[in-house]
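User: Show me sequence and structure for the first protein, then do the same for the second.

Assistant: Starting with the first protein.
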Amino acid sequence: MKDLSECRILIVDDIKANVDVLVQSLRSDYKLSVALDGASALRSVEKNPPDLVLLDIMMPGIDGYEVCRRLRASEQTRDIPVMFLTSLEDVQDKARGFEIGANDYLTKPFEILEVKARVRSLVRAKAYADAIREAREMELSIAREIQMGILPSDLSSCTAGTGLDIHALLEPAQQVGGDLYDVLRAGDERIVAVLGDVSGKGIPASLFMAVTMTLVRSMARQYERPEDILRHVSDELVTQNPRKMFVTMGCLVYDLKSRRVTCANAGHNPVVLLRQGQPPQFVFPSTGMVAGLFPGNAVSGESLELEAEDTLVLFSDGVTEAFSRDEELFGNERLLGQLADEPGRNAQETVSSILQAVRKHASGAPQSDDISIVAVRYSPHGRTS
């Protein structure tokens, strides 16, 4: 935990005599900053956030109430403790201060010993909360590292000599998330590509994601048809699922000998097909329920014959449900439009085209969901016998 002597307190008061009293009393215990008006206080906080703000209310320009309101409205400053030190002693004034978000309220004239005691209490609580948050962030960072390590790291080794070019991307909305993808070589002429989206976010979703990944890898090596893979994954998830979580999944199985691809879709988004001479189109819509909730998921498979340079794109809701600052969804039509304009010359360029379009649409708005994309391009001239 941070040593209290390293904590910094911002004193905000337009009367210099009041500032001098507080500085004299607190300078031996803490680092101090001073602002003589509300505007200066906000600039100081933005430049160097303190561990506590001692705030007068009645100031020219931006008063203390407004300073506190703005601090609470910003994600970067909403957790900074605020203690009002003011001559306003009416109950309604105090109530307003606490409603705006003050942690404490002390009226002038005050006893300096009481001020010091309350300051110490608030600073200690802030240091403790920061220590807990830092420990949690460290744990989440490790969890993210482990989770990302579960994903396949070298897709080219799975597809060498097959004529398939595969690129994948996963960007969690939080440090850990529930999206997943995998690519497996289940035989000389058989490649399996899976993308899934677990319900919820954060640690619970990441744990469910890890279990699902393990099951997918096991079932993809036991069963040839994608509907059988998803059905058995779902049945296994059902047996140990006390929180009633679920996962939507699309599973592609490429049979390179017959030049066909078969898809089973358990409650997931349809797949985008990019075919030369044709506009992008959705194929392989959902053919079954989401995985993990009910036994005997009757998901079925659909197939199509591959043509040279066909690209199939699996994606999660984080793509089509990305919000702009005006709360407008990216949507299916924008996705198809982007791929019509910039389909990319290979799988990596296709994924990059989608991601850049989503980011441009969001234009700095917070990412609301995990984003995952898998693009698979078929080039039969790249096959080796």
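Switching to the second protein now.
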Amino acid sequence: MKFPAFSLLAGLWFVAPAFAAGPIETNPYAVQGVEVDVTDVSAKAAKDKALVDAQMKAISQLGENLGSPDVAAELAKLDVKQVMPLLKSLSIEKEVIGPGHYQGTFTVRFLPDKVKPLLSSLGVKLPEEQGPPMLIIPVWTDEKGQMQLWEDNPWRKAWESLHASQAAIPIIIPLGDQDDATTLSPQDVTANNAVKIEAIRRRYDVKTLLFAFGQPGPEGGVHARVVGNSPLGKITIDKVYTADTHTLADSTVAAAQRFQQLITDKFRSDQAKAAGKAANAGPQALAISIPFAGPSEWNGLRSRILATPGVVGLDVTSLDAGGAAAKLLYIGSTDDLGNSLQASGLKLAHAGAAWSVVPF
């Protein structure tokens, strides 16, 4: 088989749905999926207590995410008065409310400037600057040649096991909920349906979307294929990964971990090169024009330009209904800039002395 080209609960309970848009948190100082279950004299009292319990549970989880179980244990010793000033915001992902009972799942965000000294005092090496997030959609083809996109399968489980949404390069795996299934089908992937693919990209609010195709390989291995453009450059992976155990489950995990290691190494290498260039030369300025059809396209182009590695600024000098004139500030050579923009899906074109940035 070849890879394709490209409710209410009973009684008085109330269920609040999870957020439908932008559901994945990439901030390393946030903790997603914090579950609490509290019983008290009333639903309100239970919820009030749950809000506090969520913060206390989250600070310990943050210590484990960024440090170790030992760091988590130390942070668990903090009292409420010590934890509350560290809080930035708290969001309810879902909740179930009943008489004298509250059950909820939260995203808890902490203030970096407040938690960094605390974590440093416990010996935690704080995260480096994050790179651009990537939405990875695992596409599995089973032994019978059936394509599985949102179903439970070993390939999807392997990518979810990375827990990399808050890593140096955040890897976002779609929720696989009803909204995802309605937006994108296996047939859409096979047909490379640009409209449907763009819709799923917009749902998760990322600039890079890659399909990771997988299928069983020989001797318990997995044949993995990930090909596409990203801000880190063109990604081309097409090989069989086989774990030492020669089991499909372990091989799928090995393949996903290898992908994460490759993009992390590339990001750190790019950072080191950029730092070296910056130490020897300041940013250069290039006058460019940016044609666009409307405000929505302009906002998208501007965001993609600013997210491009090596670009340090975009000073707009004029803006009208048909385009913008701007001064692009960047580190490195014009060739470096062109290559970086190309990886972001943009083209640096010139006619004579005039330069422009346009999408492919």
